[in-house]
């Protein structure tokens, strides 16, 4: 039995969404037990409860030795406000956890990867059940934790790899949460940003990625219409800044803010290690 | 006679706007001559001409010894793509220039301040003529270059000071354009960003501002309506992150994306030096 705790370091989820995923897991993944922390439904302003509530729930899930994994419920902003405080409160049980999430959860995945605490994994979240095709996204995660590697991003190789939302990784740079990424393949995806803002984020981010093995671009989706065309595609933007910063551009990655978002275990993927 | 070159390192301006400002300057500031570089009206995708066009115009204005100042026409994104390339092309005449602008022009102001090239000044731009009350904003700049200090931000003291758009400064952090700001009063303003994004930018920025004398908050305007209230005001956000990062929060600054935007000469203000 794989026991997974769900908490919400950023924004809340709806009870109906949680129930749907619990039913799905019980029906299709009998070796998985999902435990939804009640903090997932707390609301304080933008967040799933106050900083203290979100921090306490995260620490409780991390330190409970009966859980194998902690699945972040949803993104939307907020995890960066509690990540630094969580680290000194983590006990030995946190070091064996698998952490699953993406988007705003990247602040935690990055910090835990930096500190070599457990296993950070870029993966769809419970809240993705709301997306078109979201049932498949949830199945991909529950399958992965059950030992099915078919949902893993297909380009993973012998390089250690990380995957982030572009804004999240750009905001991590230079903070106490930023992992060292020399030698890594870095995958980034973005959603709902103007292309000029994507270009600006690449200006910033690539200045911090010296020594990486290369960059792969996930999907840049739901780009708002600006008053004029930007004049370059997301791939052209990524290639331009990689070229300026002497970073190899490696092509695309099958990640993004959508139901097709594939799984990227941080570090060297086990299947690559084993083969 | 003070001769001012106007070029557009970011986005283009309309000919009518340029003509209106030239007429205003000729009528009210006879000791000022404005020379509008034709590149200000070039268009390529998002930008006022290609990177090469914008770079060439900037370098031409900077290296022309007949100009006392270079006034950036408008913000809107693009200056960070040409700032690094401009520096090695600057000759001795660039070192005596006053550089005037704000918002996206902050990439240049920051880079020139870092390299101690001339005098960077946060100030309204020609394109501000379009704003409500924009004539007063333009008068403030033309008055300043004519020797009238009444448009200068009123809180300036003996500390060296800089002023930036919040996003611009956050994106500068860790790049080759970022000036050292230890001991400085840092003023930031923002426009058209969700409050969660403002909070995220402060998370990032304050991690890079160790050792500054303190932070002052300009106006955070045109905040888009989100699907739920954030739960904190811009000042509360600034105080929160300053407190976490041991940065003194010094109060408000009279700057912003509006016609009231005051002038902030980077470094120690002359009037404070002289008094």
UniProtKB/TrEMBL annotation, chains A, B:
The keyword Transcription regulation does not apply. Gene3D superfamilies: Class I glutamine amidotransferase-like, LD-carboxypeptidase A C-terminal domain-like. Residues 4-116 form the LD-carboxypeptidase N-terminal domain. Keywords: Carboxypeptidase, Hydrolase, Protease, Serine protease. Residues 165-268 form the LD-carboxypeptidase C-terminal domain. CDD domains: Peptidase_S66. It holds the Pfam family Peptidase_S66. Belongs to the peptidase S66 family. This is LD-carboxypeptidase. It comes from Novosphingobium kalidii.
